[in-house]
């Protein structure tokens, strides 16, 4: 009887290892009293921008706000269109709708990212920007995307929510477009103990505007330049993120190692992700494409292995997207993948016994199954 359990995620395990350091960082904030935009926020922004290879970083309250603030700062809004993908988390499109613009979807490639060959067909006189999503932590084909954007005078805003540390031709994501937007949600590779987000950019004018935009549009305590929201990164979260930054590359290395283990052990049975020589993926999720997916999920769950689907209903088929007029069949690659995609546990704290159980169970399912 197997007593090993494999939860899909184990946040308690990771945070327990560094709990003492996390609590010490919180204690310092409590002692100095700079709870809103305190010194740790600026320190985190500096470390994060250095890590991404950009001039600036702006800490905000979550990844969705990061996208919204950038779109608004670029004066994108009512009557405009923004191109993105239909297979991401809702925020990749809701950020567009929430500022009054129209999300326009483009189908994807095998790597779950936007297909550059289809972008130009979606561009109209109303198009103002492209939001490529580095889904699963796999970098999108940025050279092709940037060339199209330059040709049509469009902004490129990178949705890096799942991709901190990912690289394309040895350059980390976030610094290719006008801005890169990251989520620091507890499930992300670099995660707050709660919610958080961060924007990176090399554009000084945009940076200065975003510093005000995250804080009510305030120039100083008493003067407001433009209407905006409260979207500040909490000092306590910044303090804990500074602790976690020291472990980020180690955690990414372990995720990549787990991914390679899966690739070697289960590629005969399911379609596994592939990286080109110039792509450095960080495996926020390890997504396979599996035949008889629902049966496989039940089989794994019976063995104590939890899996997920990211995401079972594409954005263009959500009720919220009804007014956009999309239907099944508009994006064949997305429609095909959504029937097969399955996310396996890949977090750094997995033991060798756990990851072997996942691989061996997938093997036994397909070798015993008669299709």
Order of helices and strands: HHHEHEHEHEHEEEEEHHHEEHHEH
**Count of β-strands:** 12
The CATH class of the largest domain, by name, is: Alpha Beta
Annotated CATH homologous superfamily of the largest domain: Type I PLP-dependent aspartate aminotransferase-like (Major domain)
- Evaluate the radius of gyration: 21 Å
CATH architectural designation of the largest domain: 3-Layer(aba) Sandwich
What overall geometry do the principal axes of the alpha carbons give? Answer: globular
The tally of domains stands at: 2
Instruction: Describe the largest sheet.
Output: 7 strands, mixed
Poorly predicted runs: none
Strand content: 5-15%
Helix content: 25-40%
CATH topology name of the largest domain, in short, is Aspartate Aminotransferase, domain 2
Strand order of the largest sheet: 1-9-8-5-4-2-3
Mean pLDDT: 97
Look at the helices and sheets and give the structural class. Answer: alpha/beta
Give the termini distance in whole angstroms.
27 Å
The number of helical segments is: 13
Describe the protein.
The protein is an alpha/beta fold and 371 residues long. The chain has two domains: 12-245, Aspartate Aminotransferase, domain 2 (3-Layer(aba) Sandwich); 247-368, Aspartate Aminotransferase, domain 1. 39% of the residues lie in helices and 12% in strands. It contains 13 helices and twelve strands. The chain has helices at 11-17, 19-32, 39-52, 63-73, 91-98, 119-122, 142-152, 204-213, 235-245, 248-266, 293-302, 332-338, 352-368, and strands at 56-60, 81-84, 102-105, 127-130, 155-159, 167-168, 171-172, 179-183, 197-201, 279-280, 286-289, 341-344. The strands form three sheets. Strands 1-9-8-5-4-2-3 form a seven-stranded mixed sheet, sandwiched between helices. A three-stranded antiparallel sheet has the order 7-6-10, with no helix packed on it. Strands 11-12 form a two-stranded antiparallel ribbon. Strand 2, helix 5 (91-98) and strand 3 form a beta-alpha-beta unit. Helix 3 runs parallel beside helix 9, helix 4 (63-73) runs parallel beside helix 5 and helix 10 (248-266) runs parallel beside helix 13. The longest helix has 19 residues, at 248-266. The protein is globular, with a radius of gyration of 21 Å.
